């Protein structure tokens, strides 16, 4: 089977899997305890049983709760395939609009921390292999296990205590300074001039305002990204060390050393390439779960991403938001697995698609 046939086959399988995920997602949420209508009726107070029942029925008709199960299932599949997630109960606006506002924050936070933890973890893991059997090796393994066992909320609170309460270096909440709510720094201006025959525009960049804008975001991003990076780096160190230990016992490593190559060249150019397949799998899955991996961290730092939004939706039974988040996470995981399979064939020519 060629590469094109493999890709087409995986796309078909992935589409079927997405349909199954949508149906399972629908069944799970329909089976969950709690009734969103009861939450929506809280502001109504006590008007009487008959009036309250009428209002509850209006809400059920509005949100489609009163329709038969199979009708709801078909509409649910159709809406999710067309990315029509409905309206949030809490915010009273389309879920896609809210996702568009929060998604960039989560992508920068989790994407940045994932890339940093993977790069640092792989590099440190290879360095540990060079010192295998020594105190450095034992210390790295112990430290990685400890860091991976610490709760993320505890790490976040420790960093807040040290960097905010004591040193006052970084802010404790939000994604940008509170003062920007009254007026954002203007980083650039575009001026237009009209003539009788043409229209010309002039773009000018204000470096001071641009740096203020970037620095403001980075200062608020530092502590939550540090928390996630420190929490994740230990796992990458252990995974790299384990895969490299298997690779350096192979015959081709002995041959490379016999040719006079340096230990660094042997580890980075030969052993790492063949030991990278498990790392690629873990990296793909980590990026697949990138949208749901910071619920606790974003809540601790009041970061306006999808994680904190998910936690709020759980508290207030906002099922439309939760369904959308779980669906997007499932899509990301499926896509990440396809990318990992394709990278296998690029990195390891011994793998044949079939």
Q: Strand-residue fraction?
A: under 5%
- As laid out across the biggest beta sheet, the strand order is 1-2
Task: Just name the CATH architecture of the domain at 96-178 and 208-347.
Answer: Orthogonal Bundle
Structural category:
mainly alpha
Discrete helix count: 13
Mean pLDDT: 76
Can you describe what's shown?
The chain has 354 residues and is mainly alpha-helical. The protein has a domain at 96-178 and 208-347: MetI-like fold. It is built from 13 helices and 2 strands; from the N terminus they run αααααααββαααααα. The protein has helices at 3-31, 36-40, 49-63, 69-81, 95-130, 135-149, 152-166, 207-247, 251-258, 263-288, 295-300, 306-315, 319-347, and strands at 188-194, 199-205. Strands 1-2 form a two-stranded antiparallel sheet. A hairpin with a 4-residue loop joins strand 1 and strand 2. Helix 5 crosses helix 8 and helix 12 packs antiparallel against helix 13 (319-347).
């Amino acid at each position: 089977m060629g590469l094109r046939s493999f890709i087409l086959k995986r796309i078909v399988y992935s589409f079927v899997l997405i349909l199954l995920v949508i149906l399972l997602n629908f069944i799970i949420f329909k089976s969950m305890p709690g009734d969103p209508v009861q939450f929506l009726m809280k502001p109504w107070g006590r008007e009487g049983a008959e009036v309250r029942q009428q209002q509850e029925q209006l809400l059920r008709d509005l949100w489609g709760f009163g329709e038969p199960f199979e009708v709801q299932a078909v509409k649910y599949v159709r809406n999710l395939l067309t990315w029509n997630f409905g309206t949030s109960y809490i915010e009273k606006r389309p879920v896609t609009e809210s996702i568009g506002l929060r998604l960039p924050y989560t992508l920068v936070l989790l994407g940045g921390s994932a890339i940093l933890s993977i790069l640092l973890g792989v590099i440190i893991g290879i360095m540990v292999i060079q010192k295998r059997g020594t105190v450095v090796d034992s210390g790295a393994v112990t430290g990685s296990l400890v860091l991976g066992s610490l709760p993320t909320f505890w790490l976040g609170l420790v960093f807040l205590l040290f960097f905010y309460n004591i040193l006052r270096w970084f802010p404790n909440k939000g994604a940008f300074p509170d003062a920007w709510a009254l007026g954002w720094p203007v980083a650039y201006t575009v001026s237009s001039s009209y003539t009788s025959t043409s229209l010309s525009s002039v773009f000018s960049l204000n470096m001071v305002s641009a740096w203020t804008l970037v620095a403001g975001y980075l200062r608020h991003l530092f502590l939550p990204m540090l928390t996630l990076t420190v929490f994740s780096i230990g796992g990458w160190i252990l995974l790299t060390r384990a895969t490299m230990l298997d690779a350096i016992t192979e015959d081709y490593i002995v041959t490379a050393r016999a040719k006079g190559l340096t230990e660094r060249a042997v580890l980075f150019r030969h052993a790492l390439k063949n030991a990278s397949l498990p790392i690629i799998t873990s990296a793909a899955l980590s990026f697949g779960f990138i949208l749901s991996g910071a619920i606790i961290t974003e809540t601790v730092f009041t970061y306006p991403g999808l994680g904190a939004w998910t936690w709020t939706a759980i508290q207030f039974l906002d099922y439309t938001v939760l369904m959308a988040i779980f669906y997007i996470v499932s899509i990301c995981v499926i896509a990440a697995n396809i990318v990992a399979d394709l990278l296998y064939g690029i990195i390891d020519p011994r793998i044949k698609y079939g």
